Amino acid sequence: MPASKAQQKAVHKYTKENYDRFLVTMKPKGFLESVKAHAAARSESVNGFINRAISETMERDGAAPDGSEEAK
User: Is residue 51 in some structural domain?
Assistant: First the structure.
């Protein structure tokens, strides 16, 4: 059953209020397919994989969970 207009509007409002959105451009063309395959092989969504990769890299680089830099 398709979502009603009111339900679509509510989901859009919730997403806008609770999530940051960011467009990622991947190079070279076709790289996205590799990312999708990698994520799927680990039973993970592409979004989940990208968020995990960013979080793990920031942790390794010494950034705090909120994105602010920790004293090194």
Answer: yes
